[in-house]
Structure to design on (267 residues):
């Protein structure tokens, strides 16, 4: 199997795009565009995809598969990437596959022999921490995606049998001091230019998933974003629902008739 594959990710401030030939464990990158596009991925993603395909003399109908970064990351960014990928996959009639944004970042360190800690920015004073064992051109994920307070994540890594030796991820811009203090001189911060995903990293993560048999059947409907928690809007709605339920409980249950009071039997 050798697939002409388009990959992109908009879960961070970086808009990462690449085109390549992919088979299990092997990637041949044809073209890539990695753009610094904070709050601009909605307007820049598809035009850049079109430009990249044209520069490679590839028509959209030539694609065999699309790969999208699923997050975790910016809620809005993840939605833009996943919805765009679903639309393209449906329009072109090609399979869609998802990979973790944090896995794509980790692939930037696959040539090293290190224990890598990726710290994604989860906003609200939280981070997405993930550990990877990188060696021999590959990266093995050691824990599932989660969300955590920076101090808790840093403390857990610092007290582990083997703390990470290299740190990367855009969460370090806000919370780097917390991890630096907890881990001490034994942990090195990667250059900031290596803290976000690349299109090449997405293709490599997908190739590794192919080799390990971790991909699905390519059904676009089955490709779901990785959020790890509720969005702001969903939390607001949950809090509103909880407040309404608490108010109802304080006033007494409303009967099936929907009428509160002596006639309805609630008061």
């Amino acid at each position: 199997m050798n697939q002409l594959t388009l990959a992109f990710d908009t879960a961070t401030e970086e808009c990462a795009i690449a085109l390549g030939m992919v088979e299990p464990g092997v990637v041949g990158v044809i073209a890539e565009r990695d753009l610094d596009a904070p709050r601009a991925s909605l307007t820049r993603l598809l035009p850049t995809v079109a430009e990249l395909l044209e520069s490679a003399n590839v028509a959209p109908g030539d694609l065999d598969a699309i790969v999208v970064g699923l997050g975790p990351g910016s809620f809005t960014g993840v939605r833009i990437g996943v919805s765009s990928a679903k639309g393209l996959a449906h329009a072109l009639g090609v399979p869609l596959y998802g990979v973790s944004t944090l896995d794509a970042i980790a692939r930037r360190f696959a040539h090293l022999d290190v224990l890598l800690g990726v710290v994604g920015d989860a906003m609200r004073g939280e981070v997405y921490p993930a550990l990877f064992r990188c060696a021999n051109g590959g990266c093995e994920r050691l824990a599932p995606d989660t969300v955590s307070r920076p101090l808790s994540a840093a403390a857990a890594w610092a007290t582990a049998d083997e703390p990470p030796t290299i740190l990367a991820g855009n969460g370090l811009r806000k919370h780097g001091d917390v991890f630096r203090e907890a881990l001490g001189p034994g942990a090195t911060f990667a250059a900031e230019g290596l803290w976000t995903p690349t299109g090449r990293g997405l293709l490599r993560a997908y190739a590794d998933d192919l080799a390990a048999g971790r991909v699905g059947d390519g059904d676009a409907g089955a490709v779901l974003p990785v959020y790890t928690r509720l969005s702001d809007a969903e939390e607001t709605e949950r809090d509103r629902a909880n407040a309404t339920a608490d108010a109802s409980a304080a006033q007494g249950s409303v009967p099936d008739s929907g009428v509160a009071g002596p006639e309805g039997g609630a008061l």
Remarks:
- Residues 11 and 124 are 16 Å apart (CA to CA).
- The two ends are 70 Å apart (CA to CA).
- The longest strand covers residues 26-36.
